[in-house]
Specification:
The chain is an alpha/beta fold. It has two domains: 4-246, 3-Layer(aba) Sandwich (Aspartate Aminotransferase, domain 2), CATH 3.40.640.10; 249-362, Aspartate Aminotransferase, domain 1, CATH 3.90.1150. Helices cover 38% and strands 16% of the residues. The chain has helices spanning 4-10, 53-66, 77-86, 102-111, 127-133, 156-166, 178-181, 216-229, 235-245, 248-267, 290-299, 329-335, 351-362, and strands at residues 70-74, 93-97, 118-122, 138-144, 169-173, 191-195, 209-213, 272-277, 282-287, 304-305, 315-317, 341-345. The strands form two sheets. The chain has a seven-stranded mixed β-sheet with strand order 1-7-6-5-4-2-3, sandwiched between helices. A five-stranded mixed β-sheet has the order 8-9-12-11-10. Helix 2 (53-66) packs parallel to helix 9 and helix 11 (290-299) packs across helix 13 (351-362). The longest helix is centred in the last third of the chain and has 20 residues, at 248-267. It is globular, with a radius of gyration of 21 Å. Bound molecules: pyridoxal-5'-phosphate. Residues 76-78, 101, 103, 144, 148, 173, 175, 195, 197, 207, 209 line the site of pyridoxal-5'-phosphate.
Length: 364
Protein backbone atom coordinates (compact mmCIF):
# COMPACT_ATOMS: atom_id res chain seq x y z
CA UNK A 1 0.00 0.00 0.00
CA UNK A 2 1.18 3.52 -0.79
CA UNK A 3 2.00 5.92 2.04
CA UNK A 4 -0.68 8.32 3.25
CA UNK A 5 0.77 11.31 1.35
CA UNK A 6 0.37 9.38 -1.91
CA UNK A 7 -3.11 8.03 -1.08
CA UNK A 8 -4.33 11.58 -0.34
CA UNK A 9 -3.54 12.39 -3.97
CA UNK A 10 -4.30 9.18 -5.84
CA UNK A 11 -6.78 7.38 -3.61
CA UNK A 12 -6.82 3.66 -4.25
CA UNK A 13 -7.52 3.79 -7.98
CA UNK A 14 -4.61 5.45 -9.66
CA UNK A 15 -5.26 5.84 -13.44
CA UNK A 16 -8.66 4.17 -13.49
CA UNK A 17 -9.54 3.53 -17.17
CA UNK A 18 -13.28 3.78 -16.31
CA UNK A 19 -12.80 7.52 -16.04
CA UNK A 20 -11.14 7.86 -19.49
CA UNK A 21 -7.83 8.16 -17.66
CA UNK A 22 -8.77 11.63 -16.43
CA UNK A 23 -6.32 12.88 -13.81
CA UNK A 24 -9.03 14.54 -11.75
CA UNK A 25 -11.95 12.28 -10.84
CA UNK A 26 -15.10 13.46 -12.74
CA UNK A 27 -18.10 15.09 -11.08
CA UNK A 28 -21.12 12.88 -11.75
CA UNK A 29 -23.64 15.69 -11.45
CA UNK A 30 -26.70 13.50 -11.82
CA UNK A 31 -29.64 12.67 -9.58
CA UNK A 32 -30.35 9.30 -11.19
CA UNK A 33 -28.85 6.49 -13.31
CA UNK A 34 -30.58 4.54 -16.09
CA UNK A 35 -31.44 0.85 -15.79
CA UNK A 36 -31.19 -1.39 -18.88
CA UNK A 37 -34.10 -3.64 -17.92
CA UNK A 38 -35.90 -4.19 -14.59
CA UNK A 39 -33.38 -5.59 -12.15
CA UNK A 40 -30.48 -5.10 -14.59
CA UNK A 41 -28.29 -2.23 -13.51
CA UNK A 42 -24.69 -2.84 -14.65
CA UNK A 43 -23.05 0.01 -12.70
CA UNK A 44 -24.70 -0.56 -9.33
CA UNK A 45 -25.68 3.13 -9.15
CA UNK A 46 -29.40 3.91 -8.95
CA UNK A 47 -30.05 7.27 -7.35
CA UNK A 48 -27.58 9.82 -5.97
CA UNK A 49 -29.08 10.09 -2.48
CA UNK A 50 -28.05 6.47 -2.02
CA UNK A 51 -24.83 6.39 -4.04
CA UNK A 52 -22.96 8.38 -6.66
CA UNK A 53 -19.59 7.61 -8.35
CA UNK A 54 -17.90 10.86 -7.22
CA UNK A 55 -19.09 10.30 -3.65
CA UNK A 56 -18.08 6.64 -3.83
CA UNK A 57 -14.55 7.61 -4.91
CA UNK A 58 -14.28 10.10 -2.05
CA UNK A 59 -15.64 7.54 0.42
CA UNK A 60 -13.12 4.95 -0.78
CA UNK A 61 -10.32 7.48 -0.43
CA UNK A 62 -11.40 8.34 3.13
CA UNK A 63 -11.68 4.63 3.99
CA UNK A 64 -8.15 4.14 2.75
CA UNK A 65 -6.84 7.10 4.78
CA UNK A 66 -8.64 6.05 7.99
CA UNK A 67 -8.10 2.28 7.59
CA UNK A 68 -11.90 1.82 7.52
CA UNK A 69 -13.96 -0.94 5.97
CA UNK A 70 -16.35 1.67 4.59
CA UNK A 71 -17.04 5.41 4.89
CA UNK A 72 -20.18 7.47 4.31
CA UNK A 73 -19.88 11.10 3.20
CA UNK A 74 -22.50 13.41 4.69
CA UNK A 75 -23.68 16.96 4.01
CA UNK A 76 -22.02 18.18 7.24
CA UNK A 77 -20.10 16.94 10.25
CA UNK A 78 -23.31 17.30 12.27
CA UNK A 79 -25.19 15.13 9.75
CA UNK A 80 -22.57 12.39 10.29
CA UNK A 81 -22.78 12.79 14.08
CA UNK A 82 -26.60 12.79 13.94
CA UNK A 83 -26.43 9.51 12.01
CA UNK A 84 -24.25 8.10 14.79
CA UNK A 85 -26.82 9.08 17.44
CA UNK A 86 -29.63 7.56 15.30
CA UNK A 87 -27.98 4.18 15.75
CA UNK A 88 -29.24 3.72 19.33
CA UNK A 89 -32.57 2.58 20.77
CA UNK A 90 -34.72 3.56 23.76
CA UNK A 91 -33.18 2.23 26.97
CA UNK A 92 -29.58 2.35 25.70
CA UNK A 93 -26.88 4.22 27.58
CA UNK A 94 -24.14 6.21 25.82
CA UNK A 95 -21.07 7.69 27.49
CA UNK A 96 -19.87 10.95 25.95
CA UNK A 97 -16.77 13.02 26.53
CA UNK A 98 -17.61 16.05 28.68
CA UNK A 99 -15.72 18.49 26.44
CA UNK A 100 -17.39 18.33 23.01
CA UNK A 101 -18.08 20.69 20.12
CA UNK A 102 -21.11 22.72 21.32
CA UNK A 103 -23.27 21.63 18.38
CA UNK A 104 -23.00 18.01 19.58
CA UNK A 105 -24.16 18.98 23.08
CA UNK A 106 -27.09 20.84 21.45
CA UNK A 107 -27.91 17.72 19.39
CA UNK A 108 -27.86 15.50 22.48
CA UNK A 109 -29.77 17.87 24.76
CA UNK A 110 -32.33 19.38 22.37
CA UNK A 111 -32.88 16.69 19.73
CA UNK A 112 -31.83 13.23 20.94
CA UNK A 113 -33.68 13.29 24.27
CA UNK A 114 -36.88 12.22 22.49
CA UNK A 115 -35.11 8.95 21.55
CA UNK A 116 -35.34 7.97 25.23
CA UNK A 117 -31.83 6.72 25.60
CA UNK A 118 -29.56 8.02 28.31
CA UNK A 119 -26.48 10.10 27.55
CA UNK A 120 -23.98 10.65 30.33
CA UNK A 121 -20.95 12.95 30.15
CA UNK A 122 -17.65 11.73 31.52
CA UNK A 123 -14.06 12.92 31.53
CA UNK A 124 -12.70 10.43 28.98
CA UNK A 125 -9.11 11.44 29.79
CA UNK A 126 -9.72 9.50 33.03
CA UNK A 127 -9.86 5.80 32.09
CA UNK A 128 -11.07 4.79 35.57
CA UNK A 129 -13.99 7.22 35.29
CA UNK A 130 -15.00 5.57 32.02
CA UNK A 131 -14.94 2.08 33.49
CA UNK A 132 -16.83 3.21 36.61
CA UNK A 133 -19.62 4.67 34.48
CA UNK A 134 -20.15 1.70 32.15
CA UNK A 135 -23.51 0.02 32.82
CA UNK A 136 -25.09 -3.18 31.53
CA UNK A 137 -26.98 -1.12 28.89
CA UNK A 138 -23.98 1.00 27.79
CA UNK A 139 -23.68 0.71 24.02
CA UNK A 140 -21.03 3.27 23.08
CA UNK A 141 -18.34 5.70 24.19
CA UNK A 142 -18.15 8.83 22.06
CA UNK A 143 -15.44 11.49 22.38
CA UNK A 144 -13.21 14.01 20.63
CA UNK A 145 -9.48 13.82 21.01
CA UNK A 146 -8.10 16.42 21.25
CA UNK A 147 -11.26 18.12 22.47
CA UNK A 148 -12.72 21.29 21.02
CA UNK A 149 -11.74 23.76 22.42
CA UNK A 150 -9.72 22.62 25.48
CA UNK A 151 -7.38 20.27 23.53
CA UNK A 152 -7.64 17.46 26.08
CA UNK A 153 -6.31 14.14 24.85
CA UNK A 154 -7.91 10.74 25.47
CA UNK A 155 -5.88 7.56 25.13
CA UNK A 156 -7.79 5.65 22.41
CA UNK A 157 -6.07 2.22 22.87
CA UNK A 158 -6.83 2.29 26.61
CA UNK A 159 -10.49 3.22 26.01
CA UNK A 160 -10.72 0.49 23.34
CA UNK A 161 -9.34 -2.10 25.78
CA UNK A 162 -12.04 -1.31 28.35
CA UNK A 163 -14.75 -1.04 25.68
CA UNK A 164 -13.98 -4.49 24.29
CA UNK A 165 -14.18 -5.96 27.80
CA UNK A 166 -17.79 -4.70 28.07
CA UNK A 167 -18.69 -5.06 24.37
CA UNK A 168 -19.17 -1.31 23.92
CA UNK A 169 -18.56 0.62 20.66
CA UNK A 170 -15.84 3.29 20.57
CA UNK A 171 -16.55 6.33 18.39
CA UNK A 172 -13.91 9.04 17.96
CA UNK A 173 -14.22 12.49 16.40
CA UNK A 174 -10.90 12.80 14.56
CA UNK A 175 -11.58 16.27 13.10
CA UNK A 176 -8.62 18.01 14.77
CA UNK A 177 -5.96 15.36 14.07
CA UNK A 178 -7.11 14.07 10.65
CA UNK A 179 -5.93 10.67 9.36
CA UNK A 180 -2.57 12.29 8.58
CA UNK A 181 -1.70 12.50 12.28
CA UNK A 182 -3.87 9.73 13.74
CA UNK A 183 -5.90 6.67 12.76
CA UNK A 184 -8.34 5.90 15.60
CA UNK A 185 -9.46 2.63 13.96
CA UNK A 186 -5.87 1.36 14.08
CA UNK A 187 -5.88 2.36 17.76
CA UNK A 188 -8.99 0.23 18.40
CA UNK A 189 -11.95 2.54 17.62
CA UNK A 190 -15.01 1.17 15.79
CA UNK A 191 -16.26 4.42 14.27
CA UNK A 192 -14.43 7.60 13.24
CA UNK A 193 -16.31 10.85 12.70
CA UNK A 194 -15.15 13.98 10.93
CA UNK A 195 -16.28 17.45 10.29
CA UNK A 196 -14.76 17.33 6.80
CA UNK A 197 -15.53 21.05 6.65
CA UNK A 198 -12.25 21.53 8.49
CA UNK A 199 -8.81 20.08 7.60
CA UNK A 200 -10.12 17.36 5.28
CA UNK A 201 -11.45 19.83 2.70
CA UNK A 202 -9.12 22.48 4.06
CA UNK A 203 -10.08 25.68 2.24
CA UNK A 204 -12.99 27.14 4.26
CA UNK A 205 -15.25 26.61 1.25
CA UNK A 206 -17.14 23.34 1.82
CA UNK A 207 -19.36 21.90 4.54
CA UNK A 208 -19.21 18.10 4.81
CA UNK A 209 -18.85 15.19 7.22
CA UNK A 210 -17.70 11.58 7.34
CA UNK A 211 -18.56 8.48 9.29
CA UNK A 212 -15.91 5.77 8.85
CA UNK A 213 -16.67 2.21 10.02
CA UNK A 214 -14.33 -0.54 11.06
CA UNK A 215 -16.72 -3.38 10.16
CA UNK A 216 -19.19 -4.21 7.42
CA UNK A 217 -21.85 -4.88 10.05
CA UNK A 218 -21.62 -1.24 11.18
CA UNK A 219 -21.42 0.24 7.70
CA UNK A 220 -24.44 -1.80 6.49
CA UNK A 221 -26.50 -0.23 9.27
CA UNK A 222 -25.20 3.30 8.62
CA UNK A 223 -25.69 2.92 4.84
CA UNK A 224 -29.32 1.99 5.46
CA UNK A 225 -29.68 5.03 7.74
CA UNK A 226 -28.01 7.45 5.30
CA UNK A 227 -29.99 6.18 2.31
CA UNK A 228 -33.19 6.54 4.33
CA UNK A 229 -32.63 9.84 6.13
CA UNK A 230 -30.84 11.31 3.10
CA UNK A 231 -28.17 13.74 4.36
CA UNK A 232 -25.51 12.48 1.95
CA UNK A 233 -22.97 14.78 0.26
CA UNK A 234 -23.63 16.19 -3.23
CA UNK A 235 -21.29 15.34 -6.16
CA UNK A 236 -19.78 18.82 -6.53
CA UNK A 237 -18.93 19.04 -2.82
CA UNK A 238 -17.40 15.56 -3.07
CA UNK A 239 -15.15 16.77 -5.84
CA UNK A 240 -14.12 19.87 -3.85
CA UNK A 241 -13.20 17.62 -0.92
CA UNK A 242 -11.23 15.28 -3.20
CA UNK A 243 -9.30 18.30 -4.46
CA UNK A 244 -8.69 19.56 -0.93
CA UNK A 245 -7.55 16.12 0.23
CA UNK A 246 -4.74 16.02 -2.33
CA UNK A 247 -2.79 18.55 -0.24
CA UNK A 248 -3.79 17.25 3.22
CA UNK A 249 -0.28 16.06 4.09
CA UNK A 250 1.54 19.25 3.13
CA UNK A 251 -1.14 21.41 4.68
CA UNK A 252 -1.06 19.54 8.00
CA UNK A 253 2.73 19.81 8.18
CA UNK A 254 2.55 23.57 7.60
CA UNK A 255 -0.48 24.11 9.89
CA UNK A 256 1.37 22.44 12.72
CA UNK A 257 4.75 24.13 12.16
CA UNK A 258 2.99 27.53 12.01
CA UNK A 259 1.04 26.67 15.16
CA UNK A 260 4.21 25.71 17.05
CA UNK A 261 5.75 29.10 16.26
CA UNK A 262 2.63 30.93 17.45
CA UNK A 263 2.38 28.75 20.56
CA UNK A 264 5.97 29.69 21.48
CA UNK A 265 5.15 33.38 20.96
CA UNK A 266 1.96 33.17 23.08
CA UNK A 267 3.78 31.38 25.91
CA UNK A 268 6.20 34.27 26.28
CA UNK A 269 3.49 36.89 26.83
CA UNK A 270 2.54 38.21 30.25
CA UNK A 271 -1.06 38.83 29.15
CA UNK A 272 -1.56 35.14 28.19
CA UNK A 273 -2.29 32.84 31.15
CA UNK A 274 -2.42 29.35 29.61
CA UNK A 275 -1.82 27.90 26.16
CA UNK A 276 -3.50 24.60 25.18
CA UNK A 277 -1.99 22.76 22.23
CA UNK A 278 -2.15 19.10 21.29
CA UNK A 279 -0.75 19.07 17.77
CA UNK A 280 -2.24 20.05 14.36
CA UNK A 281 -2.96 23.74 13.77
CA UNK A 282 -5.30 24.40 16.70
CA UNK A 283 -4.39 26.47 19.76
CA UNK A 284 -6.62 27.69 22.60
CA UNK A 285 -5.46 30.18 25.19
CA UNK A 286 -6.65 32.31 28.08
CA UNK A 287 -5.85 35.98 28.04
CA UNK A 288 -5.81 37.91 31.32
CA UNK A 289 -9.27 39.52 30.99
CA UNK A 290 -12.49 39.36 28.99
CA UNK A 291 -11.87 42.94 27.82
CA UNK A 292 -8.50 41.85 26.45
CA UNK A 293 -10.16 38.99 24.53
CA UNK A 294 -12.71 41.37 23.00
CA UNK A 295 -10.03 43.91 22.11
CA UNK A 296 -7.92 41.26 20.33
CA UNK A 297 -10.97 40.09 18.35
CA UNK A 298 -11.67 43.68 17.34
CA UNK A 299 -8.12 44.54 16.33
CA UNK A 300 -6.87 41.55 14.33
CA UNK A 301 -6.59 42.42 10.66
CA UNK A 302 -5.02 39.49 8.79
CA UNK A 303 -6.53 36.84 11.06
CA UNK A 304 -10.34 36.76 10.80
CA UNK A 305 -12.75 36.70 13.74
CA UNK A 306 -14.91 33.77 12.60
CA UNK A 307 -16.21 30.35 13.53
CA UNK A 308 -14.75 27.19 11.98
CA UNK A 309 -11.21 25.94 11.64
CA UNK A 310 -8.80 23.87 9.62
CA UNK A 311 -8.65 26.02 6.48
CA UNK A 312 -5.96 27.92 4.65
CA UNK A 313 -7.06 31.22 6.28
CA UNK A 314 -6.31 31.74 10.00
CA UNK A 315 -9.49 32.18 12.07
CA UNK A 316 -9.84 33.36 15.66
CA UNK A 317 -12.93 32.13 17.50
CA UNK A 318 -14.59 33.14 20.77
CA UNK A 319 -15.96 29.75 21.97
CA UNK A 320 -18.14 31.17 24.77
CA UNK A 321 -20.18 33.09 22.19
CA UNK A 322 -19.68 31.26 18.90
CA UNK A 323 -19.22 27.49 19.24
CA UNK A 324 -20.47 26.73 22.77
CA UNK A 325 -23.34 29.11 23.69
CA UNK A 326 -25.80 26.20 23.92
CA UNK A 327 -23.69 24.25 26.41
CA UNK A 328 -25.20 24.75 29.90
CA UNK A 329 -23.16 27.33 31.84
CA UNK A 330 -22.16 24.92 34.66
CA UNK A 331 -20.90 22.35 32.11
CA UNK A 332 -19.07 25.10 30.22
CA UNK A 333 -17.39 26.44 33.34
CA UNK A 334 -16.46 22.97 34.54
CA UNK A 335 -14.53 22.30 31.36
CA UNK A 336 -12.95 25.77 31.33
CA UNK A 337 -14.80 27.64 28.56
CA UNK A 338 -15.02 31.20 29.85
CA UNK A 339 -14.94 34.75 28.48
CA UNK A 340 -11.11 34.82 28.57
CA UNK A 341 -10.72 31.84 26.22
CA UNK A 342 -9.82 32.30 22.56
CA UNK A 343 -9.34 29.54 19.97
CA UNK A 344 -7.00 30.08 17.06
CA UNK A 345 -7.06 27.97 13.91
CA UNK A 346 -3.63 28.65 12.48
CA UNK A 347 -3.78 28.85 8.70
CA UNK A 348 -1.11 28.62 6.04
CA UNK A 349 -0.04 32.26 5.93
CA UNK A 350 3.58 33.17 6.74
CA UNK A 351 3.95 32.71 10.52
CA UNK A 352 5.80 36.05 10.78
CA UNK A 353 2.75 37.85 9.32
CA UNK A 354 0.43 36.03 11.74
CA UNK A 355 2.60 36.90 14.73
CA UNK A 356 2.85 40.50 13.54
CA UNK A 357 -0.96 40.70 13.34
CA UNK A 358 -1.37 39.18 16.81
CA UNK A 359 1.32 41.45 18.26
CA UNK A 360 -0.46 44.57 17.01
CA UNK A 361 -3.88 43.34 18.21
CA UNK A 362 -2.53 42.33 21.65
CA UNK A 363 -0.68 45.62 22.13
CA UNK A 364 -3.54 48.06 21.34
C1 LIG B 1 -14.75 18.69 16.47
C2 LIG B 1 -15.97 19.00 15.64
N1 LIG B 1 -16.79 17.99 15.30
C3 LIG B 1 -17.90 18.22 14.56
C4 LIG B 1 -18.24 19.49 14.13
C5 LIG B 1 -19.47 19.71 13.29
O1 LIG B 1 -19.14 19.75 11.95
P1 LIG B 1 -19.90 20.62 10.82
O2 LIG B 1 -19.75 22.07 11.21
O3 LIG B 1 -19.19 20.25 9.56
O4 LIG B 1 -21.33 20.21 10.83
C6 LIG B 1 -17.40 20.55 14.45
C7 LIG B 1 -17.72 21.92 14.00
O5 LIG B 1 -17.08 22.88 14.34
C8 LIG B 1 -16.24 20.29 15.23
O6 LIG B 1 -15.39 21.29 15.58
Amino acid sequence: MYSIETRCIHGEKHNNPDQNYSISFPIYQTASFSHLTPGHNPTGFDYSRESNPTRRYLEETMSSLEGANDTIAYASGMAAISAFFEYFSPGDHILCGEDLYGGVVRLIELVCKKNRYEVEYVDTTDINAIEKNIKSNTKAIYFETPTNPMMKETNIPEVAKIASKYNVLVAVDNTFMTPYFRNPIKDGADIVLHSGTKYISGHNDTVCGFLCCKTKELSDRFRLLSKTTGATLGPFECWLVLRGLKTLAVRMDRHSSNAREIKAWLEKRDDVDNVFYAGSGMISFYVNSADKALSILKNIKLITFAESLGGTESLLTYPVVQTHPDVPVEQREKIGINDRLLRLSVGLEAPSDLIDDLEKAFNV
